[in-house]
Amino acid sequence: MPLALPETGARALVAGHFSTVGDIEVLRHVESRLHRLEVPFDVAPYTLDLLGFDPSWVEASTLDPAAFTHLIVVCGPYGPDYPVKYPHIFDRFRHCTHVGINLTMVAPLADCNPFDALLERDSDRTVRPDLSFLLDVPKVPVVGLCLARSQREYGARQLHDQAESRLRALLRRAGAAVVELDTTVPRSANRTGIGTPAEFESVCARLDALVTTRLHGTVLALKNGVPVLAVDAIAGRDKVTRQAELLGWPEIHALDSISDADLDLALARCMDPSATGRASACAAFARELLAGHDEAFAAALDAEARPERRPPVASGKGRLSQIAARYRHWKRQRFPRR
C-alpha cells in the first residue's frame, strides 16, 4: 500500500520503541523510503531515555503537531493501552494520518486498529516477513575481548581496571563487533557462560582478532590462528609479555607505556589479513619448542623427593587459609559472577 501524501506540505513524525537493533534496522529502512519519497520527517522514540542513542532524534512533546501530516509508528508490539502510555505521541498527533509499519498487533484488529493504513508484521489477519530483511547492513570486524580479573599476587602492580577502561574504549573507536570471552571455570563463575575449553576455543577460532590481558587469551588465540592484541596489565611487564616474546608474536604491549593512538594502530595490524598467517606460524613454533616435553615429563616423575626444600607452614595460618578458601568457594557458588 503506497503512502498517501498530500500534494504539498507533507511532514512525518516517525515514532516507535527503537530499543533493539532490529528496531533500528527497520527504522533505517523506513527513513530511506521517506527520503526517496522526498517526505521530510523527525524521529521520536516513545521514551526519553533513548534520545541519546541518535543525536538527530527529538522529543515528541517539544514539536508542534500542526506542522505534521503523518504519524508513522514503526516496529515492535502495539497494544491497546499505547495511547494512554504515550499520549505525547498518540494524543498530540491524533489529527495526522496514522500509519503502522512492521508492528505486532497484540490485540485482535477488530478490537484495536487505530491506523489509517496498517502494514503490520503480524496480526490476527496476516503475517509478513520482518522489514529488516530489506536493509543491507555493512559487516564489521568481530573482535573478542578477554580480560583478567584482579590478581592479588601482583599487588599494586596490577592495572586491570585501567586496562578494561582503555581496551573497551579502543574497541569502540575501532567500530568492531565485540564478543566477550572469559577463561574462568566453572561455568557458574564464568562471566559469559563458557564452561569448557572446547566452548572457549570454538568461539575464539571464529574471531577476526582478540584483545586480551590474559596469558591464556593470548595463547589460545594464537593456537587457533587468531591475531591477538596482547596487553600486559602488570606494571613492569610479566608473564603475558614473556610468553608473547618467546613465541615471536609482535603485538604485545605494556599498558603503562603505550598510548591510545598506538593501541589503535596495533589493533589495525591485528585485523590485517596477513596477521592470520603470522599467528598460525607462532602456534607452529610453540609446538616445535614443546617437542621434547613428553620425555621431560616422564623424567620428572623419576625425581627424588626432597621435603627439606619445602618451607614450614604455621598451623594457625594454614587453618585460617583453609577457612578463607572454603568461604570463597561458598561465595562463588552462592553469588556467581557474570
Characterise this structure:
This protein is an alpha/beta fold and 338 residues long. It has two domains: 12-134, Rossmann fold, CATH 3.40.50; 142-291, Glycogen Phosphorylase B (Rossmann fold, 3-Layer(aba) Sandwich). It contains eleven helices and ten strands. Helix 6 runs parallel beside helix 7 (239-247) and helix 6 (215-223) packs across helix 9 (274-289). The protein is elongated.
Give a summary of the structure in a few sentences:
The protein is α/β, with parallel strands linked by helices and 338 residues long. 36% of the residues lie in helices and 16% in strands. It has helices spanning 21-36, 82-85, 87-90, 160-174, 197-204, 215-223, 239-247, 260-270, 274-289, 293-300, 315-334, and strands at 12-16, 41-45, 70-78, 97-105, 117-119, 142-146, 177-181, 209-212, 228-232, 252-254.
Pairing-aware structural class of the strands and helices?
Answer: alpha/beta
| Alpha carbon gyration radius | 29 Å
CATH architectural designation of the largest domain: 3-Layer(aba) Sandwich
Label the overall shape: elongated
N-to-C order of helices and strands = EHEEHHEEEHEHEHEHEHHHH
Can you count the beta strands? 10
Main sheet makeup = 5 strands, parallel
Low-confidence stretches: 1-6
Q: Within the largest sheet, what's the order of strands?
A: 2-1-3-4-5
Number of helices: 11
Mean pLDDT equals 91
Give the assembly state of these chains: single chain
Q: What is the distance, rounded to the nearest whole angstrom, between the alpha carbons of the first and last residues?
A: 47 Å
Proportion of residues in β-strands: 15-25%
Going by CATH, the homologous superfamily of the largest domain would be: Glycogen Phosphorylase B
Proportion in helices: 25-40%
